[in-house]
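Continuing the series of single-chain predictions for the mutant panel. This is the parent chain; the variants come on the following pages.
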Amino acid sequence: MFACLYQPPAPDQPAASPLLAAVAQAFSPRYERRCDDAVAIDVSGLARLVGAPRVIGEELRRAATARGARVHVALAATQTTALVVALARPGVTVVDPGGEAEALAPIPIGMLARIAERAGSAPPASAPGGHGAGGTSAAAGMAVFKAWGIRTLGELAALPAADLAARLGSRGLAWQALARGDDIRPLVPEAPEERFESTLELDWPIEGLDPLSFVLTRLLEPLSTRLERRDRGAAVLHVALRLATRRPAEGEPHEVHARRLPLPSPVRDVRTLRTLALLDLESHPPGAPIDAVTVVIDPTPGRVLQHTLFARAVPTPDQLSTLLARLGALMGQDRIGAPATVDSYRPGAVAMEPFATDHDPASRPPTPPRPVLEPAAPVLSFSVRRCRRPVPARVTVEAERPVRVTTDRRGFAGGGVVGCAGPWRTSGYWWAGTSGAGARASDRWNRDDWDVALADGVVYRIFRDRETDGWFIDGIVD
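Parent structure:
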């Protein structure tokens, strides 16, 4: 048995969506919102608690009236029949099992567009139209039915299904199923928002990561079980450690050491989550003993991995996440990651971004189209192999141009300059270290760049630091 509540639009009534959901939740955990003004409820089993279907309908109407709303209530053996009758008739209506066709037959055909929208069968705007459909919307289908002389749902239900499908396709069959009161899809209950949080008050304060490891395991095990039952994974792990410093005054909060760990992929393995939390706390330890631990998980849909028979197995995201966390604890979070460009003209400027093990093709920026080159046009390209640190050099200058480059570094051959281009003068961050501009003094530069070709055919990119008047080799041009 299904019940449907429909709240007609009225200026003096409260918002329908939260009100109807509250009424439905008070009677059954299995309910589904149909648009903002209708809700379908599975009331099977309420006969022992409430009474006959008529009594259930009256109780539903009374509960809605107590919240200040006037609703239509219908009960039937199918949710579609209950929805159609609730939209068409005010008050409380009960349709006996087997009487669905008789109850829906006199309802005007114009009601079908509203029914299709709330039943979840309205065709998309891009769906191809059937033969004689005159369009793709439900309103266009209703116009076709009226042109055929069909005025009620009973007349539509009596049409031959094969002939209807030949003219309107699968949409016509879906509309006929609604006219007959057949369910075209099951009830999908609303899933309440679930909070994955666990807290443990300690009998005495603890220090160090070893005792904290046991506490985290105890908190994460039930959370992992709940995540697995809901087919969810942890997207972000929050760890809050209450510190046992001084006793705060009445009304003041305790001092809390909070850490937030964004995870590159959904994880619900207890050992992985515990290891990631401990490695992060190793890099950012609390400043006092701990007397309470709280773990909060932001859930996300679980991952589905499809392995192939011929491709080599790759490390799982859990293993990669643990490896990155260990590297971060060993070297520092700002020293590992993926290189990213920086909006700066500073030579060698680069930033580090966290690695992501999951890549969503839809979230990637579109690849720009490759330029079309004329077949006869020659294409000249080169690259510069930059030195990790600029190599000190000795440069002889004549007429303000370099004529000879030498260095003591092995692997770099010096010699006379047979051709050069430059200088290209650049500078930046000259304001660093003055008045809170946000730049570091180490980011400041002021230099003249040159490209020089030596007698042995090697092309260097060199520069002169204008502040120290020193010369350096910045890279080799390939």
